[in-house]
Amino acid sequence: MMRKTTFYLASFLVASSLLITPQTVLAESVDVSIDSEITKALRQNCSSVRVAVKNIHTNDALTRVNVGQRYNSISTKLMARLNGRLAINKLDSSKLVNITNNFESARLKFNSNYNDYDTAMTELQRASCLDNIADYYQKLIAARDARNRLSEDIKTMNDLLIRYREEVQAVKGSISGGQNG
């Protein structure tokens, strides 16, 4: 029994270290009047902006699938199983269960926010940066804000994984003095 628990602990530590954290890129709010630099830049670079938006949307969809699968696996295959094993062995895992519940809530929020982001990006791709620049820019801002929310969700989940990992280390240390066996 202890070897399986140690195996789950080690598996969790390895899997949690494999996650890649996307970096947040925040832009500042800008005026989009008819004569603004943003309007001129959008008008002059409309086709390249549209290609860039399409590429970002495509790449983000692939990243979301990969990251989403990793977070789902960590939640269901590692965290839930480890918590169950600890409970079966009558070891206190209340902190791990609490962190797992928070992680699962954050994961579901990430899924929901990704759907919002995907909708914002789809609306942006359908908009015209030549016909209605102000509307296009507002959709661009909405997509950027939705993407920033995703970044915050990922940071939250990664912070929870760090806390979980620290608690796993504490539990591991309390089992047989932390020795493998």
What can you tell me about this protein's structure?
78% of the residues lie in helices and 0% in strands. The radius of gyration is 22 Å and the shape is rod-shaped. The chain is an all-alpha fold and 181 residues long. The chain has helices at 2-17, 37-44, 46-88, 94-126, 133-174.
What's this, in brief?
With 181 residues, the chain is mostly helical.
- Work out the strand percent: under 5%
For the termini, the CA-CA separation is: 10 Å
| Low-pLDDT segments | 5-28
Output the structural class: mainly alpha
The coarse overall form would be rod-shaped
Please trace the helix and strand order, writing H or E for each element: HHHHH
**Treating each run of at least 4 consecutive H or I residues as one helix, how many helices?**
5
- Number of E-type strands: 0
Rounded to the nearest angstrom, the radius of gyration is 22 Å
* Sheet with the most strands, sense and barrel status: none
Mean pLDDT score: 83
Helix content: over 70%
Throw out a few tags for this protein.
181 residues, mainly alpha, single chain
How do the strands and helices of this protein lay out in sequence?
Layout: H1 2-17, H2 37-44, H3 46-88, H4 94-126, H5 133-174
